[in-house]
Amino acid sequence: MVRIGGHFHADDPLAEAIACDARIAQFFLGDPQGWQGPVIPGGDPGAVAAGYAAADVQVYIHAPYVINVATTNNRIRIPSRKLLDQQLRAAASVGAKGLIVHGGHVTSGVEPEAGLENWRKAVERIERPLPMLIENTAGGAGAMARSLDAIARLWDAVAGAAPDGGEIGFCLDTCHAYSAGIDLAEAVDRIKAITGRIDLVHCNNSRDEFGSGADRHANFDSGTIDPAVLLDVVRAAGAPVICETPGAGLAADIGWLRDKLADA
Fold first, then answer.
1. Distance CA 27, CA 12 (A)
2. pLDDT per residue over 84-94, tens digit each?
3. Phi, psi of 105 (to 5 degrees)
4. Nearest to 157 by CA among 65, 82, 70
5. Which of 142-175 are b and which e, b meaning 16 or more Cβ less than 10 Å from the residue's Cβ?
6. Residues with Cβ < 8 Å from 78, sequence gap 6 or more?
7. What DSSP assignment string belongs to 222-258?
């Protein structure tokens, strides 16, 4: 059975993961909305890696939301590259299996090709000591990874830029896909046809309706996506799963998913 875990915002993600019987802990290395460099919990990356390994809990790090390597705004793009590089190195130092980063966007009036070229440059110039997983996004004009067509264009750009320069993978977020108007019944097959892989699933329900463009996660029993559809996505993807659902119901979501997969 695939590993199932959650995103934890607590000061001690490992303790939270163990309390939820999660086999994966995803967390931020610092402020997700800030430009500061990574902050290692406890300050000792070796101790962090050893602690998670001893507990048999895998680590995934989510890059800060502010990172946008696609933009033509130098004041955002250049710091984004620097911060992404720092995050990749820090994630590797704590033994993470991957670093998840959003696809970013270009601003109004800028052609998507400019964003693709900026992604190419970022991939060519940033060393990747662990897999960098690009995540699809829910909405926004000029988004690089919202629609299937946009994902295909982005994948062509990054795959061509790094044939031997470190692994690039894909993270499928179910809420984002649904809000972007992608049919979840065929999302896995269509994305694998583009990328050849799905390395991680962010399994989230959505507070908003199909095609809304809104990025608002919900627990499995309270969103607008049929939980059975979420289960089908997880089974089809065959990849590790992280629930990023609201904290009050996170443990229940992890447990429900674990039980359903065990029954298969």
1. 10
2. 999 999 999 99
3. -160, 165
4. 70
5. bbbbbebebbebbbebbeebbeeeeebbbbbbbb
6. none
7. TSSS-HHHHHHHHHHH-S-EEE---GGGHHHHHHHHH
In the chain, the amino acid numbered 211 is G
Sequence-distant (6+) residues with CB within 8 A of 222 are: 205, 207, 249
Q: Are 252 and 218 in contact (CB under 8 A)?
A: no
CA distance 256 to 106: 38
- 166 within 8 A of 129, measured Cβ to Cβ: yes
Q: How far apart are CA 211 and CA 123, in angstroms?
A: 30
- The DSSP code sequence of 56-98 is T-EEEEEPPTT--TT-S-HHHHHHHHHHHHHHHHHHHHTT-SE
Nearest to 95 by CA among 45, 143, 133, 26: 45
Residue 8 CB neighbours (<10 A): 24
pTM (predicted TM-score): 0.97
Q: Using CA atoms, how far apart are residues 5 and 250, in angstroms rounded to an integer? A: 9
Structure tokens at 140: 């926004």
HSE, side-chain direction, 13 A CA sphere, residue 12: 6
CA distances to 5, 92, 96, 100, 151 from 55, in Å: 13, 18, 14, 22, 36
Question: What are the pLDDT digits (tens) for 214-247?
Answer: 999 999 999 999 999 999 999 999 999 999 999 9
For residue 100, the surrounding DSSP H or E stretch is: strand 98-102
Residue 240 · residue 201 · CB < 8 Å: yes
Token pair recorded at residue 12? 């001690």
Q: Does domain 4-263 have CATH number 3.10.20.30?
A: no
